[in-house]
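Async update (no meeting this week)

Hi team, since we skipped the sync, here's where things stand on the single-chain job. The sequence we agreed to prioritize is pasted below, unchanged from the tracker. I ran it this morning and attached the output directly underneath so nobody has to dig for it. Comments welcome in thread, and please keep replies under the output.
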Amino acid sequence: MLGNIDLEDKIIILGDFNAKSPEWGAPTQDRREECLVEWAAALDFVSHNTGEPTFIRGDTRSHIDITFTTQSLASRISGWRVLDHEALSGHQHIIFNVQNISRVPRRQVSVVVFSKYSSCLINGMSFASSSSHP
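Output:
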């Protein structure tokens, strides 16, 4: 999996990793934490957790649900938070905002000169070459 990720990609990974680490707010760490921290560092992933517990059941609170993004997307993430209402599974709902990622501009059909286009099709010429001629 490591070899297939282009670090320029804008990737969000969220999950119940069952790993405790001070890096994402847990007061202690466990064995899974070391592997996960190394994996995230190797891929230059950033954790967006702010220290709020993401799992609550009775008196048990833990920080096992983690949100990672690639470095190229990290600055576009804002407002990460754990919602303060009952989640039936114990895993709290996490929400955040992703600022607009550039979109492919839509074509404006109204500016297409259909007579030139059909002329190109009829004459077998490319539209690009005919559009450069008056």
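Quick observations from my side:
The first helix runs from residue 31 to 42.
The helical segments are 31-42, 71-74, 114-123, 127-131.
Reply here if anything looks off.
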